[in-house]
Amino acid sequence: MSLGLRLPTLPTCAIPSIPSYRKLRPTYAIWLLGQTLLPEAPEYAHEFRLRDQHGRVFLDHGGIWLLELSKFAADAVETEQQRWLKFFNEAERLDEDALPAWMQTQEMRRAMNTLKAFSEQEHAYHAYQARQDYLRERQSIQLEFDDLRAEVEQARADVEQERVAKERERGAKEQERAAKEQERAAKDEALAEIERLKRLLADKPEPSDPGTR
User: Fold this and answer.
1) What does the longest C-alpha to C-alpha distance in the chain come to?
2) What are phi and psi of 60, to 5 degrees?
3) How far apart are CA 59 and CA 49, in angstroms?
4) DSSP 92
5) Three-class HEC string of 132-193
6) Strands (DSSP E) along 55-133, which ranges?
7) Does pTM top 0.85 for this prediction?
8) Non-local CB neighbours of 62 within 8 Å, separated by 6+ positions
9) Helix or strand or coil: residue 31?
10) Domain residues of the chain, as ranges?
11) Which of 10, 32, 18 is nearest to 61 (CA)?
């Protein structure tokens, strides 16, 4: 079984019309590294190309430029490459109103304007993120406050419910006590009536026998 890999193709409308591929200009990928990647190599610029195991170059129309900014320390600018590397190293510390002599080119001024635009966009982005963080924190605080208020209201409702239950219990006990009082009073009244009737019967003379007259 064979495995095939098909690379995606671009539509023909996306490829510019050229008379020959030999007129294509080389295309390089430029990697700017703020830290040292190849400590054993003293130079700061490295050019890599695609080669096979025999050292044969795959194509001559491009490659990868790897630039280690940490190794670049030229004071004087002699080439455009050095100008750009110095810009990448020192751009954040430059004053756009008092640029040094090596920055006095159209490309460098354009690069400075681009950097300023990026800085403004970054500032706006951080301001937006700070605003979002503030809104999220405020929402979190509001939610916590709502939860605490709900807990307080629930506790207050529980206390009120407990008070009402105790009031009902006390009222029921009062009614029970009053009922017992009424029952006892009724018993006392009945006993008193019985005692009164007994006294009446005891004080009443017995009727005489007609046969004895």
Assistant:
1) 173
2) -105, 10
3) 8
4) G
5) HHHHHHHHHHHHHHHHHHHHHHHHHHHHHHHHHHHHHHHHHHHHHHHHHHHHHHHHHHHHHH
6) 62-68
7) no
8) 26, 27, 28, 29, 49
9) strand
10) 13-73
11) 18
